[in-house]
Write a structure and sequence with these properties.
Blueprint lengths: L1 H22 L1 E3 H8 L3 H13 L3 E7 L7 E6 L5 E10 L2 E9 L5 E8 L5 H13 L4 E8 L1 E4 L2 E5 L9 H6 L6 E5 H12 L8 E5 L7 E6 L2 E2 L14 H6 L5 H19 L3 E5 L5 H9 L2 H5 L5 E4 L3 H14 L10
Parallel strand pairs: 4-7, 7-10, 11-14, 14-15
Antiparallel strand pairs: 1-3, 2-3, 4-5, 5-6, 8-9, 11-12, 12-13
Helix pairs in contact: 1-3, 2-3, 6-11, 8-9
Family: Belongs to the ROK (NagC/XylR) family.
Organism: Candidatus Enterococcus mangumiae
Protein name: ROK family protein
């Protein structure tokens, strides 16, 4: 019976947390109205959340109508996360390091080259940033790689292949962490940013210039991963195995057009989310308009161009860290 009571109380605590997280400030009577939980229980729950530092209490707060009442405010600074975003620029790997609060607001950012692409350099990077980040409660990693059962199976120019990535992180810190492919995070983050339903079938393609494309397959709010998380790994298509990364913007546009026609036939998505350099968008649109295969296919997807890479990746990592918690961005 005690276990059942504890479970019910934790469920109610999460409901109150989620409600305040979404609305930021609410009076106790508004919490009761929204949750249908009794005032006595709500008073007990919010007291615990105030004591834990998740809520601020503003007693006797004046109201527009009625007598003053207690108002509660969510504390977005209660937990911070440290995000490591590995990205390519001119065939060189860089890492952007963000500190974010529970709302996903960027509190700090650093950028540095990651010349030595090695497990020891990766661990040193984490350790050095944790030394000066005492408020960090969790970590998030976006990497140009696919991961299966703690092992990198396919990565940027094969530089990280076969890294035991989970082991490497756990040797440095015991903080909770989440790690995911960059194309997946760009796609999910942009859908959240534009309030596009993750329940649809979506193909995301992240295609930096002079690089290989990363592809995300999303259906019914779940990623389609495949064996060893290699589903959609476009660099293994015959065209890429033969010719490698594109040398010109025109070649990239043609490659992207061919990829889209292929995935449109295989997946028949509602939408394509395309993360490309804005300068080549006209070339891509022209190539898509001239693609004879697309014109013959019955599925007519919507094309959405990702216009804010940084915001999208931070949102994607926030979603990854707090998915299925009271701070889940996809819940509202």
């Amino acid at each position: 019976m005690t276990t059942k009571k504890n479970l019910i109380r934790q469920t109610n605590l999460n409901r109150v947390l989620s409600l305040l997280y979404q609305h930021q400030k609410l009076y106790s009577s508004e919490i009761v109205e929204a949750t249908k939980i009794s005032m006595v229980t709500i008073n007990s729950l919010v007291k615990e959340l105030v004591d834990d530092g998740f809520l601020f209490e503003h007693p006797n707060k004046p109201r527009e109508i009625g007598r003053p009442a207690t108002q509660y405010e969510f504390n977005y600074d209660r937990k911070h996360s440290l995000l490591f975003v590995f990205r390519e620029e001119n065939k060189q790997l860089y890492v952007d390091i963000f500190t974010i609060d529970l709302k996903g607001e960027r509190l700090a950012k650093q950028t540095r080259p990651f010349f030595d692409v090695s497990p020891s350099a990766f661990q040193l990077l984490i350790a050095n940033h944790l030394k000066s980040a005492s408020t960090i409660a969790s970590l998030g990693f976006s990497i140009p790689a696919k991961i299966s059962e703690g092992m990198i199976t396919s990565s940027w120019y094969e530089k990280m292949d076969h890294w035991p990535i989970h082991q490497l992180i756990e040797e440095v810190t015991d903080l909770p962490y989440h790690i995911q492919n960059d194309a997946h995070l760009f796609t999910i983050g942009h859908c959240l940013l534009k309030q596009l339903p993750l329940s649809e079938t979506i193909v995301g393609i992240y295609y930096p210039q002079n690089s290989m494309p990363g592809v995300t397959l999303l259906a019914k709010s779940s990623l389609i991963e495949g064996h060893d998380s290699l589903a959609g790994e476009a660099k293994y298509f015959p065209m890429f195995l033969d010719q490698g990364s594109p040398e010109t913007p025109g070649e990239l546009a043609e490659n992207l057009s061919s990829l889209i026609a292929t995935y449109n036939a295989l997946i028949a998505p509602d939408k394509f989310v395309l993360a490309i350099d804005p300068d080549i968008k006209p070339l891509v649109e022209e190539s898509l308009a001239q693609n004879l295969y697309l014109a013959k296919q019955p599925n007519s997807p919507l094309f959405i161009y990702l216009d804010d890479l940084e915001t999208s990746i931070v949102l994607g990592l926030h979603w990854l860290i707090y998915h299925h918690t009271p701070f889940d961005l996809a819940c509202y």
